[in-house]
Each structure stands twice: as structure tokens, then as C-alpha cells.
Structures
1.
Amino acid sequence: MMGVITLFSKYRERSIFMLAVEKDKAGLGPDNMWSFSSFLPRFTDTYTITLQFFDGKSKETRHVQRKESITKWFDEDGLLVMENFFRFFDELHFEVKVKRHDMYKGKNQLQSGLMKMV
């Protein structure tokens, strides 16, 4: 039984740890889908995360993959620095959600949104 579960998680799930459905605000249009997957090799601090977005209206799939050192998210005492952690995921979300030609225009909105959180 464990062998079946291992094969399923390795080849079907592909390290996906979260699937989310973003409902259309009006409730009439198709829903958007979000998928998060990650990989952290043994004996290294390099964390690879992939965020995939499927736009329900345009049927377009966009994704971004980042490799980041997890040491940026922790302080000297080993405590998670939430500001750095959330900033990383907000930037990923922004990069996938906003179309490429709109990225420069929307970057100021992201920075102002982060300042409100702090």
C-alpha cells in the first residue's frame, strides 16, 4: 500500500502541496485555479517553489518558478521572519497574476500593499 501511495505522490501530484479555486466575483464566469508545488533537496538551503495560475476566462496558464535560500526567512535565533516570508509569496503571486507588460505599472501597487502590512 505504501508503494502505491509513494508512486501516486511522486508521479501524479509532483510535489503539489496546495490547490486553490478562485471563484469568479460575479459568480457567472469560469473559476481560476492556483497550484503550489515545492522542492527542498537534502543538505541544502535552496528552496524551489513553483506557482501555477490557470485563468478561467482566457484559458491561459502562467507559472513562475523561483529558487531562494530559506535562510532569508529566518533570524539568528531560528525564528521565522514573517515579513520576509510574506513578501516572497506576495511577489510570486503578483508575478503570476499580472501580465508581463503590466508588471512595471503594478509593481508600485505591490510595494504599497506590503507597506500597509508592516
Note: The chain is about 35% helix and 30% strand.
2.
Amino acid sequence: SKATVSVLYCLKSSNTSKMVGTGMTREKLERIAAASRTGGNVRRRHKAVRKSAEPEDTKLQGTFRKMGMTPIDVNEVDITMEGGDVIRFGNAKVQASPQSNTFVISGSSKRVKAEDAAAEPEA
């Protein structure tokens, strides 16, 4: 296949030169070149907004309220897994919805062996 190449010729007249096929004069081109930025970083139009976890937590709490979840006061939650390990939540926040048999446990957790969980005193 043949590649087509367009070539712009610059005709020199007495005081202005015009590029054939573009309607652009040398003065216009020099004015545009002088006004354009060269180098530097690209200008950002919007500042990047960092979202914290707090609004997400607020949305989650609102969803729990819609589901009819109510907070329950407990000090510690232990979940026993099939392999014998225990997931222990100290100072856990527990929410429950008895109608739908749904529980939400949030907080920091650690995984311990069943023997260690029975031997450790509750905090």
C-alpha cells in the first residue's frame, strides 16, 4: 500500500509568509508559540481529594441501622474455627439483628490456638 505524505510549502512574499494549505501566517504561528507553555509539569485542573475511612464507616453504620441492627455490649468475642483455631476479638463492637439472625463483629482480632485461648485469662 502507498503511504501519502502531505507537505506544506512556505511561500515568501514581501513582508509575510503563508503556509499553503493551512491558512496560518508566520506571525500567527509565532504568536501561538510565544503564548504556549514549554516544559514544567502538566497543570492539574482538580486537586486530588483524599478520602478517609471515616465517611465509609458512617455509610456502613447507616446501612446497619436500615437493616435494624442494634449494638450489644460485650467485652470479648471468641470465634472457634473448624481447624481448632480461635479468632479472638478484644474490645469488640457487636451489632445484631435478631429478626434476620445477623451479627456484625468489628474491631482488632488475633488468631490463637484453642489450647492457648482456653488458658489465657480474659481481658
Note: The longest strand covers residues 85-90.
3.
Amino acid sequence: AVVSTQSTGLWHTAIVVYGNEYFFGGHGIACCVPGTTQLGPPLKQELLGMTAITQDVFEDYLIGLSNSKFHGSSYHLLENNCNNFSDEVSKFLVGRGIDEDIVTLPQRVLSSPLGPLLKGHLEKLSN
């Protein structure tokens, strides 16, 4: 591979729970009807588990996240993105995160031989 890392793609992830799809981007935490984000329907879906967390508790949790780590201005393509959000929310809801390869992909790309060259270009996408 050009950047000395193997991956099947650069992923956008979201969490579907209580009939909504929750995701994080440059405008903060958002929700929509599942499969209707601007990126279109998902290429892959994975059942992460069942939750005992009530919808009210979950919504309060999201408010806390949107006021701290996942507000719109905190979005960063490489360091605080939709995959970090999905991982953290999954851990809260079901006690386990999403696939570690998805969460760690930015760090693996940046630590590759071409990482320093790519970083500047990827940073521009984050703004």
C-alpha cells in the first residue's frame, strides 16, 4: 500500500438506536432517519449489541457529549471524528467499542512513511 498500511476504506460511522441514526461531524452531533445521511445508505452494518440504557438517559448523555468533547468546533478529521464518536457512544450503550482498526486508522496512516506528507493535505480537509 502507498502509505504502508492496509485498510479496506476510510469509514464514516454512526450509531443507530431508538429508531435514529446518530453521528458526529463539523456541525456537532446530529441525528437522522437511519441510512439517510448525506453520504447515502451504509455499505456495511454491524450489530454491536443490545442496550439497557433508556432513551432519556441516552439523550442526556448526548447533551453532555455535545457540550464537551463532541461539539461542532471540536471536529477534526484525524483526531476527533465520527469514528471516535461512534466508538465512545458504543462503549456507553453496549460496553464495547467499534472495530479498533477503524478508530486507529488515522494514527496508522500518519505514522507511515508518507504520513508527514499527507498530514498537511488531510488537515485542510478538516477545516
Note: The longest strand covers residues 20-25.
4.
Amino acid sequence: FLTEDNEDMSIPISEIHRLKPMNDSNVEGVEDMIHLDDVSEAGLLRNIRIRFGKDRIYTYTGTILVALNPNKNLGIYNKEMIKRYAGAKLSDHPPHIFAIANAAYEKMKITQANQCIINSGETGAGKTESTKLVLQFLAAVSGQHSWIEQQILDSNPVLEAFGNAKTSRNDNSSRFGKYINIHFDRTGCIQFAKIQQYLLEKCRIVQQNTSELNYHIFYLMLSGLQDSEKERLHLKDVDAYHYLVQGETPPLPQHNGDELRKVKAAMKVLMFTEEEIWTLFSILAALLHIGNIQFKAIEVKQLEASEVIDTDLVRLGADLLQVDEKDMMKWFTSKSTSTGRGDTVVSLLSTSQAVDMRDSFVKAVYAKMFVWVAGRINRSIQGPKQAAEKSQQRSRSKRNPVADTLSIGILDIFGFAAP
């Protein structure tokens, strides 16, 4: 017999009793899979496949939304769609990410209880976009349309620039996890928000697999800064930096000046100062220069040691980080160990150990910078300082902080790779 994919298949006559007629729900597909007659793994996957073939990328399983990345624009996230799903029940309209966001929002207002949306799936599944769409919906329906709502939305391009990268399966993969807590007053208007980031993939900063890239911000900086700005930072093209060429793949088309201007514009909305933005670029440039530092083996008192080949790179990195050049040289070629009795033992490092020390230093600096960026964003999206402090004070004095603000938390777990 022929399968639905027009493939020939045969089974022994002795096994024919195992074939069962397919129910109508399994033939046409259903919006909510709890209504399927065949709830086996094969039945669930087939239902999702049927719907995906009709550009119906969303399917319910009760209050769980199964979403597939169509890798194309379906035009289903405009203002009209927001109005359609705002205030509606899950069963009123076809499955949609806006319906889940609306369900959380309405239940929060009705029950006066905090809600949470968990966004999980493998890399490339569309989690980052889904999180942004939930934020877009909540900002639109909160009714206030204030500056704080725009700041919450503009936190996305900044975090993506510093925390997202091209992988072998996804051009904009989040390489960190985040929990966004949106706080509302009891009528449903956004008051402030807070972002918690965790598990940044630090190893990507110093090493990338084939066909993968480093974090977007490095390529945006090299392509988008003015020539005079790049000269001040002693920057060259992408190919000049060890940390940017290990994946053996060119930068993405969106790694351009227009995209950098969008990121900088978002940072301005989030109240980053010009000095803060320039300091970030200085740190990024320093890390690229430091990544090019190489070492050669030497012998000191008959012990294996190492020294820097090109000291100009150390000088560049130290100047941009505003640290002492000699101290930086010591950080990479030696280590100090405390004996626990107040004494310090200094040991020299081999070339391979020096490379590891260099890379560890770069990873630590980038991780600290990322934490600072997230914290700086929080300073803006937490809204008026008085309101935030008042809420915190009341929360300390009561077991239930709902009396002060209600919240919807969005947990965006960064993608895992399917085996």
C-alpha cells in the first residue's frame, strides 16, 4: 500500500491485524490535541505535521502551546491580531502565542495572582521570538502605552546583541537564559520590570565550532563604527582577530551598520549614556586585541615558562581596559597561590597555560560586562525609583506581595541541541 507521502510500504499478512482505521480527528488534524482519538506519539506528531503543512504553526495541548518555527513571515503578529486575541478565551480563536499571553494577563487580573509563562525547546525552535511576541502583546494590552513599555521592548535588541550568536542551526540563538518579570498595578497597567540572566555561554567568546560565530556585538562593532572610531580603538577587519575566525564562516548579512544603529538607539531609549556605550566598545575592542596575544616558550632558572611575543597587543589591551600593562603581562604568564599561612607562591606558566589564562581572563571580563549590561537595563525598566522602592518595602512587610503589584514572569530557557 501507499503511505500519505506516496511511499511504498508492505507488511506481512500475519501482522495485518495490527493495522487500525484512522479516526477523522487524526486525518484532518485538530487545534487542541486533547481531542485526538489517537494520543500516541505518532498521532501527536502527525497532527502537528498536518497543521504545519497548512501554515498553522500553533497547536494546543490543553493550556500548553506547541509552536513550530516556520522560518518565514506569516503576517500573524500585527495590531489587528493583538486586538483579536485581547480579552478572548483560548477556545475563541485558533491557537496563537497571543492567546497564551492574553490568558496569563486575564487570569492575573481576575484572580489577582501572579502568573508565569515557560518558554522551552531546542535551539532554533523560535523561543527568542516567542518571548518578544509575548512582551509585545503585554505592552499593547496594558493600556498605559508609557515610556516604560517601550523600554521593556527595547531591552531585547540590546540583550540579543551581547548574548545571541549564530550557531550551526540558528542565526540568532540565545546563548543565555533569562527570566523577565513584568509588574502591573492591580488594574493591569505595566509599572516596571526586571530581567534576570543566567548561564551565559562564556566558552563561545574564545572558541567557536565550524559554521558558528561569536556574539553579534563584535561583528556589529567592526562593521558599524565610523572609521575614526575604529581608529581610536585600533580595530581592523573581522579576519584580523583570532576570536572571530575559528568558525570559518563569514559574518551574517545583518551584521551591518544599520543593525548597530538600531542597537545604539535602543540603548539610548534605555538611558545608556554616550560614555557608557563607548566604554563597552572599548572593552570589546580590548578583548579582541588580547585574543591575538601569542606566547613563546622560554626557560627561567631551568623551569619552563612563557613570554608574550607581541607586547604591543598587551599595551593596547591594557590601555583600553585602563589597567597597568606590566600587571596584565604578569596575569597571563604567571599565577599566584596563597599557602593559607599568609605567604604567596608565584609560579611561571607554560605557553599552553598562558593561552588558557588569557582565554579565562577574556571570558571573565565579557561575563562581567554582560551582567553589567543586564543590570543597567534593569535600572531603566524598573520604572520610577519611588514606585519600585515602595513596592519592595511593602513586600517585605507582607507575606503576599500581590497587594502591591501583580506580575507575569516569562522564563526563556536557552535552546538545547537535539541528539
Note: The chain is about 45% helix and 15% strand.
